[in-house]
Amino acid sequence: MQNGHPFLKMHGLGNDFVVLDARGRDLGLTPERVRAVADRHTGIGCDQLIVVEAARSAVSDAWMTIYNPDGSEAGACGNATRCVAWLLMEDSGRDKVVIETRAGLLDAERRGERLVAVDMGPARLDWRDIPLAEPVDTLHLGITAGPLADPVAVSMGNPHAVFFVDDAEAVDLAALGPGLERHPLFPERANIEIAQVLEPGRIRMRVWERSAGITMACGSGACATLVAAARRGLSGRQAEIVLDGGTLAIEWLRDDHVLMTGPVALVASGRLGPDLLA
């Protein structure tokens, strides 16, 4: 049976995606259809639905659109960027590609067998760029929730609030995440990171992603965490970020761009049934 649009199921450190290639046709995606595909019981199931489209500029290889499981659109996803970059490199036989997103042009490079480095662009630190609802010092947000207090705000094309704690495992992220995501200071909601500095070059991080909840990994969140730690003087500009699903190597370059290196995995391929996408 060849009916239905083909899909790939991929993940980066357990942060999982359904990837659709729309370079040859308009998929007619709606929020309802995105939610149907992302549903883990009646659909394929994913943290984000990724659509690869034709390049919109002469310097890029493809455009990538990122959908949250609630049907809304996200501005950035580091783990998905690595997955799409690997697919484009496999298709082209090249070791470098440029992916266009709402967050800008992202350069990606093969670093080994299913290992990809992505320049995630500059870390944005001004309150307007996060964005925040009012002018505040992004190094010290006046937010508290239970044992959590004094987060750092960073934008990596999407908003992040990073809380530093003594024990990341002890935080009830499932209970605190929903309220923090929707704090009035975040007009576009925020990704919430809980970070414990194990040593200057190694940081444990757990994440609550807006719209998706707790996920096993968040590439943009790992980038935001390293930037926040460096700004606070808790680490240098390079560190391993230890996530539930594995470890990412993050470096905050001198030009303020953030380089993320990590693995990709291809899990399965198939075709969406007509109840999901005609």
Element-level helix/strand string: EEHEEEHEEEEEEEHEEEHEEEE
Note the quaternary state here.
single chain
Number of helices: 4
- Overall mean pLDDT stands at 95
CATH architecture designation of the largest domain? Roll
CATH topology of the largest domain: Diaminopimelate Epimerase, Chain A, domain 1
Report low-confidence residues grouped into runs of 5 or more. none
Beta-strand percentage?
35-45%
User: What is the count of distinct domains?
Assistant: 2
Q: What's the CATH first level of the largest domain?
A: Alpha Beta
Q: What is the CATH homologous superfamily assignment of the largest domain?
A: Diaminopimelate Epimerase, Chain A, domain 1
What does this structure look like?
This protein is an alpha+beta fold. It folds into 2 domains: 6-121 and 263-271, Diaminopimelate Epimerase, Chain A, domain 1; 124-255, Diaminopimelate Epimerase, Chain A, domain 1, CATH 3.10.310. The chain is built from 4 helices and 19 strands. The strands form 2 sheets. It has a 17-stranded mixed sheet that branches. Strands 9-10 form a two-stranded antiparallel sheet. β13 and β14 (202-209) form a beta hairpin. The protein is globular, with a radius of gyration of 18 Å.
Write the layout of secondary structure elements.
Layout: E1 6-12, E2 15-21, H1 31-38, E3 48-53, E4 62-67, E5 73-74, H2 78-92, E6 96-101, E7 104-112, E8 115-122, E9 144-145, E10 148-149, E11 152-155, E12 159-164, H3 173-181, E13 191-199, E14 202-209, E15 213-215, H4 219-232, E16 238-243, E17 246-252, E18 257-263, E19 265-271
Parallel strand pairs: 2-3, 4-6, 12-13, 14-16
Antiparallel strand pairs: 1-2, 1-19, 3-4, 4-5, 6-7, 7-8, 8-18, 9-10, 11-12, 13-14, 14-15, 16-17, 17-18
